[in-house]
Model the fold of this input.
Amino acid sequence: MRVLVVGAGPAGSLTAMLLAKSGHEVTLVDRSSFPRDKACGDVIGPLALAMLDRLGVELSGDRHRIGSMWLGFEGREMLMPARAGLNHGGYGLTIRRKEFDDLLYRQAITAGAESRVGVVGDVQRSGPHLRVLLDGRQEEFDIVVGADGANSGVARSMGMVEPERILLGFALRRHLSGSVRADRVDLLLGGRGPITPGYGWVFDQGGGQLNLGVGVGVGGERTRARGVRELLDQYQQDLLDRKIITTAGAHQEMGGWLKMGLVGTRVASDGVYLVGDAAGLVNPLQGEGIAAALMSASLCASVIDRWGVDGDAAYRSAIDQHFRKFLATGYTIQRLALAHPKATRLAMQSLVRVGRRSERIASGWGIFWNDLTEHSGPQPGAFVAWSALTLGQSVTTFTKARPSWPD
Ligand SMILES: Cc1cc2nc3c(=O)[nH]c(=O)nc-3n(C[C@H](O)[C@H](O)[C@H](O)COP(=O)(O)OP(=O)(O)OC[C@H]3O[C@@H](n4cnc5c(N)ncnc54)[C@H](O)[C@@H]3O)c2cc1C
Done:
């Protein structure tokens, strides 16, 4: 079985690694030569760490742990505690994507995947094969895995995405020297532009380095992301004024799109499978996508190994089973928040006001919005998180803002 994996981010490299280990002939192609950078908050969350551990991928070195963190809104803040769950350690690690993605990429090559630098264009079915335009030349493969990120050309050329239905976000991050009192995120309701809702973050990366950024939901309207740099400037200045961070020297800036909530995307069709951001698996509430990229890669590799080109239904059902419950709820909350900024402000104010006094609420929110509800086990906040998910599902059922499944 000749498999082409397009894109060597975490989703592509892991799919290629697992398929190569199972004896498939795998080509892993990326338009960039590695190591390459990628816009990210550089946090590998607890579920992603647990998966890497199970896969035997070691992140060597002394890394900064992201555990409990502050959540702020309009000058107030609450501490979101982090505790180990049923099947994760309860903390994330910061590691720059240039390093993390390269680590997985090299493991795919070690496992036997052939690596190529090249740009993939059109993908089309041609009889029993898939014809792929690779660096201007036509080549044939049995299976194509689209791991080419939020703007997936593979999904577009195979008609697997409906651009008017997808839920997009845009995020911009800065790498800079400095210090922060404690890792934090801040819920943001826009600067001067209509880019709401969103949130800002600042994470210590160790060695006197920070990752500072903002992300906003834009629905399907990419132009709404125009004010993001201004929002980030304001956020950085606000943190400096409040003496939460200190900074020194110039920064490096990088932005990118997030495709969230699984809507408007058919994840498998006619021997083509989508994984990671290409499938739209990013958490609509906080923008985390690496854990989902790794999980979808693992599901995809098992389906291909078992079903080959005939695994469309099996893969769609596996993705539904793993992601649908939370993503549908997150999607609905995002849509409602975009449509009702005043109610969103009230909800955010109440959350932080109550969460300052109740650890259970603060912890429950941390579990819920990080999509850890089903992995948390008995602990303070678990019931709150479970209730929030149940309530979210009911709202999802009864509002017009819900996603229209199945895709
Ligand atoms: C600013 C920002 C902050 C974020 N912070 C976090 C965070 O802290 N933690 C977290 O878990 N997630 C975070 N995310 C989300 C996370 O970055 C993504 O979910 C993750 O990178 C998805 O991995 P992937 O392998 O699906 O795609 P990607 O990492 O986007 O990889 C896609 C690859 O495909 C290649 N490619 C694209 N088109 C072609 C083509 N035509 N031909 C060949 N190659 C192609 C690209 O070069 C790229 O290497 C953040 C996103 C942004 C934008």
Remarks:
- Residues 335 and 401 are 6 Å apart (CA to CA).
- The chain has a mean pLDDT of 93.
